[in-house]
Amino acid sequence: MSRDDMILDGPASLHDFLGDLVVYRNLCPVDQRLPDRHQVAKTLGLDDRIPRKTEPDYARIIARMATAAADLNGAEGTLNRLVAVGDTRLNDGTAFRNLCAVTGWPGVAIICSEKESDPPSLQEAEPGLYLANRWSLLRDFRRVLEERRFPVDERTMVMMDLDKTALGARGRNDQMIDEARVAGVRATAEELLGSDYDEEGFLSAYRELNQPPYHAFTADNQDYLVYVCLVIGAGLRHTEEVSAAVLDGSLTSFAQFIGEMEAGGPTAMSKRLRQVHGSIYQRFLQGDPTPFKEFRYHEYRATLARMGCLAGSPSASQALDQEIVITREVAELTAQWRESGATVLGISDKPDEAALPTPEA
What is the 3-state secondary structure (H, E, C) of the chain? Predict the structure, then answer.
């Protein structure tokens, strides 16, 4: 289906087809009737930290939350199958395999990324995991499950990815999620660096360091990356210097970088930047994977500004180019699965601070 054939509906929300069964990075469900990460970790004897999506402990916590959600739906103790929908084979595919492993449940997953330049394709890339290059092929995925005699009913947990799946579909609308993040990055730098803000230098550092060769250094964590770029933007380090140190192995981790800034950098910082550095450093030492709260609050506001922002009756193509939109195929399929009795849990690796309003907001 091309953009010209798409239809824009609205307004709508994730709540329409997921309710409050949504979990963001902190692993504290929006539905407060479900146990949060602290309760589950204590029950399972896990460390009280926030595991990332690709870790087995993440799967153990999500499985316990899904079981609790099924109990709320009156399907107590019946979950024994898994279906997953996502947009990245590495993160979503790994989370799916881990969940199958820790529960012992059989599972089937689909990973989708729109590629209009290629012929439509839905293929089983590895046992139980399908790759699709059209979001419209989610409708065919239902047929695949039927052919496999894999029912989606009250015994089934559905793990539904949110970012670039339910919202801002990868290959179709994901650029708007990225645009919102960059807008949050820029707003953070403008606020903290003031008259010293060199936008081109700051964004140049961000573009360079936001690439796979630097992921071992930044841990592919946007909070870490934005902090590094802020230090560069303040003139305390240079992009070329940081890049060279990472690539030659003399700078191996964010912990090393922020430790060096703590040892010698604060005296050269402005008062406001010094305050922000101090709060980030303390949260980092405490194991908070989202230590740069100011950045995430800006990202939240930038994301919200790109939802339902177009006036009048825009076309689907206009909305895809200027708004973050819900993926119709995901919404339809999720609603159908819930009606069939499945427990659908929306999961996101986006920090809570970038996805949910503060009490003041």
Answer: CCHHHCCCCCCCCCHHHHCCCEECCCCCCCCCCCCCHHHHHHHHCCCCCCCCCCCHHHHHHHHHHHHHHHHHCCCCCCCCEEEEEECCCCHHHHHHHHHHHHHCCCEEEEEECCCCCCCCCEEEEECCEEEECCHHHHHHHHHHHHHCCCCCCCCEEEEEECECCCECCCCCCHHHHHHHHHHHHHHHHHHHHHHHCCHHHHHHHHHHHCCHHHHHHHCCCHHHHHHHHHHHHCCCCCHHHHHHHHHCCCCCCHHHHHHHHHHHCHHHCCHHHHHHHHHHHHHHHCCCCCCCHHHHHHHHHHHHCCCCCCCCCCCHHHHHHHCCCECHHHHHHHHHHHHCCCEEEEECCCCHHHHCCCCCC
Half-sphere exposure of 184 (CA within 13 A, CB side): 29
Q: Which pLDDT belongs to residue 357?
A: 86
In whole angstroms, how large is the CA radius of gyration of the chain?
A: 21
Give the relative orientation of helices 254-264 and 222-233 as an angle to the nearest 10 degrees: 40
Neighbours of 157 (CB within 10 A): 27
Q: Decide: 323 and 307 in contact? Cβ < 8 Å.
A: yes
Give the span between the Cα atoms of 249 and 194, in whole angstroms.
33
Amino acid found at 47: D
Over residues 88-99, the pLDDT tens digits come to 999 999 999 999
Provide the angle, in degrees to the nearest 10, between the axes of the packed helices 199-209 and 222-233. Answer: 140
- How far, in Å, CA of 361 to CA of 352, rounded? 14
The neighbouring-strand residues paired with 344 are 158
Residue with tokens 């916590």: 61
Specify whether the CB–CB gap between 319 and 325 falls below 8 A. Answer: yes
pTM value?
Answer: 0.91
Going by pLDDT thresholds of 50, 70 and 90, the confidence category of residue 159 is: very high
Indicate left, alpha or beta for 171 from its phi (over 0: left) and psi (-120 to 50: alpha).
left
Q: Give the pLDDT confidence of 207-220 residue by residue, as tens digits.
A: 999 999 999 999 98
d(CA 18, CA 20): 6
